[in-house]
Amino acid sequence: MKAVLLALAIAFPGTAGAHDWYSGVTQNGSDCCSGHDCGEVPSDRVACRYGLCWITLKPGDHLMMPVGGTLLFTRKPGFSADGGTHVCIHNRIPTCLFVGGQS
Questions:
Q1: Quick check: helix, strand or coil at residue 8?
Q2: Which residues contact residue 78 at a Cβ distance below 8 angstroms, ignoring those fewer than 6 apart?
Q3: In what order do the strands lie in the sheet with 69-73?
Q4: DSSP reduced 3-state for 3
Q5: pLDDT value, residue 20
Q6: Cα(10)–Cα(24) distance, rounded to whole angstroms?
Q7: How confident is the chain (103 residues) per 10-residue block, as mean pLDDT?
Q8: CA 96, CA 74: separation in Å to the nearest integer?
Q9: CA pair distance 41, 70, nearest whole angstrom
């Protein structure tokens, strides 16, 4: 059991600590997190243009999208508290998006 926990900690470094700032955060009137659906993704996986953001995830990029895929976020992204790019996904729908720098 300890080996499994260690393997998960190595595979997903910083997930718990990075998740802390999502607690109680809302975006566009919706709760962002239900305790497990938010995570940091590589910034090059998000492209925003004309008020829309395409989130293209590869397998392993996000726990809620284990096989990857492309999602459409139709609202303005929020500012990331740690400068990273974060997305919250529930039932393959992005509920919140946070980007570093100006949003």
A1: helix
A2: 25, 27, 96, 97, 98, 99, 103
A3: 46-49, 52-57, 69-73
A4: helix
A5: 60
A6: 27
A7: 40 45 70 77 94 95 94 91 90 90 50
A8: 10
A9: 13
On whether the CB atoms of residues 55 and 97 are closer than 8 A, the answer is yes
| φ/ψ (deg, to 5) at 18 | -65, -25
Residue with tokens 């393997």: 7
Angle at 17 between CA 23 and CA 100, to 5 degrees: 75
Give me the count of residues in the chain. Answer: 103
**Domain definitions of the chain by residue range:** 14-99
Residue with tokens 């400068």: 83
d(C-alpha 52, C-alpha 67), whole Å: 23
Q: Which amino acid is at 66?
A: P
Q: Measure the CA–CA gap between 89 and 95, rounded to whole angstroms.
A: 6
* Sign of the dihedral defined by the CA atoms of residues 78, 51, 44, 65, in that order: positive
How far apart are the two ends of the chain, measured CA to CA in Å? 42
